[in-house]
Write a structure and sequence with these properties.
By secondary structure, this protein is an all-alpha fold. The protein contains 24 helices and no strands.
Length: 656
């Protein structure tokens, strides 16, 4: 008994150790059993979060079994946190962590730190080793060095001192899930550098207790959706996005909330949800589209480079508009006109390009991919101050504009032949105080609305049809002369036809049948005005009586071109001098001109011996045409087989 009494202290100590070891032996669990101290089954998977919650607030809890911090090499449990199966680097950090040279690179550990918080990513992951319970990232945590000394300084934080959007390493790609850690310093913008704060719009802080978030007025940024009213309209947010990159403009500004790849990360709104593609522009924005890329500041090229490097991902219709080019060498900084993206290097104009009569007409033409003032702006800048070409218009023109300093109608080079589609560029200098879309003749720029004409009067298809109509109080060439003068030199209006048409006449310089605008639809009553320039022979001016351009129509009477004269003959029963077959004898089987060289289309508007519209409600109607002409009608109107007739289902009408 005495022997037992002597050995009891030793036995008690051994039993205590056994109980302790049993309590510290590990299987796994998300919590620790309060009675035995054992971890339960899924401990390996979840111990990272448990460690953060338990160790940082109560270091002694882990030290009881695994040994004193910061080593935790096993203690009485003989289970080290840094065995071959777990954390095995010599520094005590997670596997593959500080022992590699790559980890010290910002690009390596920075990307991991900025990711969504998890067991091995996010600021909270860094905080396990590099933080303390009270001052995150200052005390060096359990094992690691402080973020404050030697690396990130001068503030103890998991980011460089400066990481605004313009800096080498920037915060805009940080997952918003890290906001609770950011809140340690930046709650309601606390400790935000002055230069950073100056770039942010003001906001009313969120109520206390609001969970920290990047865009809910708890940290640095205000609540999402604080764009101006109407922001979703392309004409509102588009120009801001296309402006030069800055704190509140440019594609990089959009990336702050909508993610580097514009997938929506952060704001939750992907560009694709509206634009149709994952890009800060509509799916089609070529020069001829509603919204065009030609007004985007060239400083946005690095963002465009994400998709369009060496014309990658460029639609086929866009590529077709571009001349081929040899791609710039790898490493060339992205630019709009240096063969790195879509366009070739600037300076591919012809050798004689500086001659005004060469580049001038191109600039004055309708806006397009290779013409118009917008085309000039691509290289010479929105204000024509030089742009990417570094050549200001002023260096030749004398003023910062795409035209000579004087180009009124009496000058060597005149503005009156400039396409009115360029008006929005002219508005940069010549805009008056009147509201409205810039236009040459709508009181927004230099010229008032043309007399009492409609706003769109300068459009050829609008005023042209009125001028070519039969002479009257509000139509015909005589009507034009009432304001523009008998010789169309300006008259009381002071606006000569030449200023737009290029010649002193109420028609474009070329309006033959093959031209865009043709004279063949001009009412013959205007012949007296045409005679001011086109008289050939004496007599009452007429289109087909040898007094102007055309001779008397074969052996037809003088009034033959009049529809009521030749029309009734053509519509009569076929014969030697009547009917459609009679017309074909000179004008061709398909009425394309034949031996006469005069196609019906030149007057009628269609290749047929009748006006384009001659239904019963039209001025001239087909219902008085002799049915013997059906065979000619069948050249166009055949419906069913059989002997052609007007009322037997072979042409237009069914059986009577």
């Amino acid at each position: 008994m005495s022997q037992i009494k002597k050995r009891w202290p030793i036995i008690a100590i051994l039993m205590a150790l056994l109980i302790t070891v049993a309590g510290c032996s590990s299987s796994s669990s998300s919590t620790t059993d309060p009675d035995t101290g054992k971890h339960s089954d899924n401990w390996i998977a979840v111990h990272g979060g448990e460690f953060i919650d338990t160790f940082l607030s109560n270091p002694g809890k882990c030290e009881e079994c695994h040994g004193s911090a910061p080593v935790l090499r096993g203690g009485i449990s003989k289970v080290s946190c840094f065995n071959a199966s777990c954390h095995n680097s010599s520094s005590g950090a997670p596997i593959g962590h500080c022992d590699t040279d790559a980890w010290n690179s910002p690009a390596s550990h920075g990307a991991r730190a900025k990711m969504t918080p998890g067991d091995d990513s996010g600021f909270s992951f860094c905080q396990v080793c590099h933080g303390t319970p009270n001052v995150p990232f200052l005390g060096g945590g359990v094992f690691g060095p402080t973020c404050f000394i030697g690396c990130h300084g001068p503030e103890p934080s998991p980011h460089p001192n400066a990481w605004l959007p313009d800096d080498t390493n920037m915060h805009t790609t940080t997952d918003p899930g890290n906001a609770p850690v950011c809140a340690n310093c930046h709650l309601h913008r606390n400790k935000l550098p002055e230069d950073a704060a100056a770039k942010l719009p003001p906001f009313t802080p969120a109520p206390d207790g609001t969970p920290p978030g990047c865009f809910n007025s708890t940290l640095c940024h205000g609540v999402l959706g604080q764009h101006p009213p109407g922001w979703s309209a392309p004409t509102i947010h588009g120009p801001v996005a296309k402006n030069a990159p800055g704190g509140t403009s440019g594609f990089t500004y959009c990336q702050v909330c909508h993610a580097v790849d514009f997938s929506g990360d952060g704001s939750g709104v992907a560009c694709q949800s509206c634009h149709g593609i994952a890009a800060p522009h509509p799916s089609a924005w070529l020069p001829d589209d509603t919204y065009t890329h030609t007004t985007a500041d060239t400083g946005n090229a690095p963002v465009c480079n994400q998709c369009h490097f060496h014309q990658n991902n460029l639609p086929a219709d866009a590529k077709a508009l571009l001349p081929p080019f040899v791609p710039a060498p790898d490493g060339t900084p992205p630019g709009c006109f240096n063969s790195t993206l879509c366009h070739s290097a600037v300076g591919v104009h012809p050798d004689n390009w500086p001659v005004p009569t060469v580049h001038g007409p191109v600039a004055k033409a309708a806006p397009g991919s290779s013409s118009g003032f917008f085309y000039c702006e691509n290289c010479h800048g929105t204000s024509f101050g030089g742009g990417s070409a570094e050549i200001a218009c002023e260096s030749c023109h004398g003023i910062a504009a795409p035209h000579p300093s004087a180009w009124l109608p009496g000058d060597a080079f005149v503005h009156t032949t400039t396409d009115i589609g360029n008006a929005s560029v002219c508005a940069q200098c010549h805009r008056n105080t009147n509201p409205g879309t810039p236009g040459c003749f709508n009181n927004t720029l230099c010229h008032s609305a043309v007399g009492v004409h409609l706003d769109n009067w300068p459009t050829p298809t609008v005023h042209g049809s009125t001028a070519k109509a039969a002479p009257g109080a509000t139509s015909g060439f005589f009507y034009c002369e009432s304001c523009h003068g008998e010789n169309f030199g300006g008259g009381s209006s002071g606006i000569a036809c030449k200023s737009c048409h290029g010649i002193f006449a109420p028609h474009p310089s070329s309006w033959l049948p093959g031209g865009k605008y043709v004279h063949t639809t001009t009412n013959q009553g205007n012949a007296a005005v045409c005679a001011q320039c086109h008289t050939s022979n004496p007599g009452t001016p007429g289109c087909f009586n040898s007094t102007l351009c055309h001779g008397a129509v074969n052996v037809h009477p003088d009034g033959w071109p009049t529809p009521t004269v030749h029309g009734s003959t053509a519509k009569a029963a076929p014969g030697a001098t009547s009917g459609f077959f009679y017309c074909e004898s000179c004008h061709g089987e398909n009425f394309g001109g034949g031996s006469s060289g005069i196609a019906c289309e030149s007057c009628h508007g269609i290749p047929a011996p009748h006006p384009s519209s001659w239904l019963p409600g039209g001025t001239y109607e087909h219902t008085t045409t002799n049915q013997g002409n059906a065979a000619v009608c069948a050249q166009c109107h055949t419906s069913n087989p059989g002997t052609t007739g007007c009322f037997n289902n072979t042409l237009c009408h069914g059986d009577q």
